[in-house]
Amino acid sequence: MPCVGRLLLVSGDLHSFGSGVAAAAAVAVNRASGYKEQMADKQIEPCPGCGLVAGPDDGPTHVYIGSSPGCWAMFNELMTVGAGDGVASQLAGDAYAVQHPGLIERRAIQSVCVHAINLCARLERGRPEKTIQDLMRAALEHQDWWRPFHLRTPIGSITVADVLAEQDLEARAALTRAWATDIWAACEQHHELVRGWLDELTEPAGRRREQSGQQHSPGRQHGVNSRRRKSR
Q: Domain map of the chain by residue range?
């Protein structure tokens, strides 16, 4: 069953991906009934995030997700029909958010970073879907972490249009996973940073202190030994 209520970040709060679904559904009807022909004489600007060229050239967009109206409409359509068998739409939402970073402003930067944490958690650590919302809430407590990724655009080689065009649900699920993997790969220069954030969020504080102590133990041990030699 399609799942609409997936999570985006708005001003530090959790917000539903489904907020634009009604408008997107109307756009989808227009597109299906010959909207492309109506747009034939217009120059449609590529999506600033993924480079997709798709109408309409006006219409609703997200407040800070950096996508074109046509791309945003397709994304909301995907949220309506679902990302495929056995794949939570959150994974598609994480891929989309990182692929469309928007302007260099606090909410947009935070969105990319938190959704990148989700991609790392799902793709590299195999964290179950049911833990992702709590992970996002925990991440929002660390406002001082976030910084822009400055990814080269267009980001990735798979777009929401590719996923939406796949009618077979199993094949769409596989393509959604490939999309998420593709976008995570596009963030390669930031992988260690994101992994570090994820470690901070998921490892017990005691274990982190122990690991930190092990990293510095040679220097401390040297100091102890030196004091002992002096006391003799």
A: 7-204
Question: Which residue carries 């179950």 as its tokens?
Answer: 128
Q: Is 147 left (phi over 0), alpha (psi -120 to 50) or beta?
A: beta
C-alpha distances out from residue 117 to 84, 167, 195, 219, Å: 22, 29, 7, 33
Could you tell me how far CA 225 lies from the centroid of its own chain?
49
Please state whether the peptide bond connecting residue 56 to the residue before it is cis, i.e. omega within 30 degrees of 0: yes
Each residue's pLDDT tens digit, 152-186 = 999 999 999 999 999 999 999 999 999 999 999 99
Structure tokens at 101: 């970073």
Q: What is the pLDDT of residues 186-205, one digit of tens each?
A: 999 999 999 999 999 998 65
pLDDT at residue 203, rounded to an integer = 84
Residue 185, classed as helix, strand or coil, is: helix
Q: How far is CA 14 from the centre of its chain?
A: 14
**CA torsion through residues 164, 110, 122, 187, sign:** positive
